Amino acid sequence: MRDFECRDGEMIIGGLSATEIADRYGTPVYVTDEEALRNNFRRIHKAFNKQMSTRIHYACKANSNMAILKILEQEGACIDAVSLGEVLTCLKVGYSPERIMYTGVNVSNEELEGLVEAGVHINLDSFSALRRLASISIDAPISFRVTPGIGSGHHEKVITGAKNSKFGVPIEDIVDAYREAMDLGFKPKGLHAHIGSGGLSVEPFLDLMEILLGVVSDLKDELGLKLEFLDMGGGIGIPYRPNEKPMDIEELATELTTMVKEESEVRTLAVEPGRYIVADSTVLLTRCVDVKRTSRKNFVGVDAGFNTLIRPAFYDSYHHVVIANKFGRACTERFDVVGPICESGDYLARDRVLPEPEEGDLIAVYDTGAYGFVMSSQYNSRPRCREVLVDKGEIALIRDKEDMDDIWRHQTIPARLLG
Ligand SMILES: *Cc1c(COP(=O)(O)O)cnc(C)c1O
Fold this sequence. Notes:
Blueprint: E1 5-7, E2 10-13, E3 16-17, H1 18-25, E4 29-33, H2 34-49, E5 54-59, H3 66-75, E6 78-81, H4 84-93, E7 100-103, H5 109-118, E8 121-124, H6 127-134, E9 142-147, E10 169-170, H7 174-184, E11 190-192, H8 203-223, E12 229-231, H9 249-263, E13 268-271, H10 275-278, E14 282-293, E15 298-302, H11 311-315, E16 321-323, E17 333-338, E18 347-354, E19 362-365, E20 386-391, E21 394-399, H12 404-408
Parallel strand pairs: 4-20, 5-6, 5-13, 6-7, 7-8, 8-9, 9-10, 9-11, 11-12, 12-13, 15-17
Antiparallel strand pairs: 1-2, 2-3, 4-14, 14-15, 14-19, 16-19, 17-18, 20-21
Helix pairs in contact: 2-3, 2-9, 4-5, 7-8, 8-9
Pyridoxal-5'-phosphate (PLP) binds near residues 194, 197 and 274.
């Protein structure tokens, strides 16, 4: 959780008051602070690269707004993409194909063809994908995603490395996968794994690295294959709750790079942080439209629901909330912060102490830069909201809000129903 400046009882984001931003752009609105975004990238880039050459592949599914992609492109980021759509967006923003690594699951032939045409690195997830890619092109740079048999994450839905996972090539088959790839004429470049998302401790990453280094040595012994890079995936968590401590990124970088340098000949590391880079760069501002007190519970009704931010409803995620125009004021009562979607699971926060809320107040939801806007929907026929970028007192629109035409655009009523 970031600390925000308070001026005259107002929360300040990137040099501007939350009220100013909301008055100008309406609510709900996602507000990204450019400086925070750049600092997050620089911190992790530096921690690894002062130890050994490490590519930071930003996992752009966390937030694929093109302005944010552009900022990270300027910072020297590489990309972890999980769809052809993400690949094409990153190419459009100005990333060269060499900076993009695609890691998909259950990849169609159509998608494989698009990736070969785009010229990006393809990280393969199965024997089926390997064989189907071979029939399209054997010149593509490839690696394999291995299922390491260990998982980590903030919720069962985001653990990807466990034995029963749909992701990756099972570890017992991984040498055979490389053997078959080489027999088919590929020159595999690296090895990849991603254990899950949102953990705050270093240990699972060290366990993962031990497993990857074991595979590296098997590949060398059994196939004479020397890999150029090792990719340890993403999943570095952030402290969403006030009492949580951030992961020690220096410790993570030092321990991992020492293992790689001491136990292998691999000279390039890759890391795929998504959440770590974007989560705390962004707050969601939403307006209180209704205050309801009942004998059992109190509710602050706001204009953003799980159509705008699904993480609380979907993963039971905690996001810190404050009243931005009563910033720092004493909290007096307990409330659930709930949205306009007609489902009882539609909440942003539960059981939070807040200063006396009133209709018209501005609620700030913290740490919404990762898996926030990108997971929003038009559910209940509500157009998606705006995104803005603030930087040292300046503000720019980076995505406009949708309107009803956006909801109707691709629908048709067959002519026979219109008679
Ligand atoms: C989602 C994903 C990431 C990023 O996860 P974070 O928890 O946002 O860091 C990295 N690599 C792959 C392959 C992913 O699917």
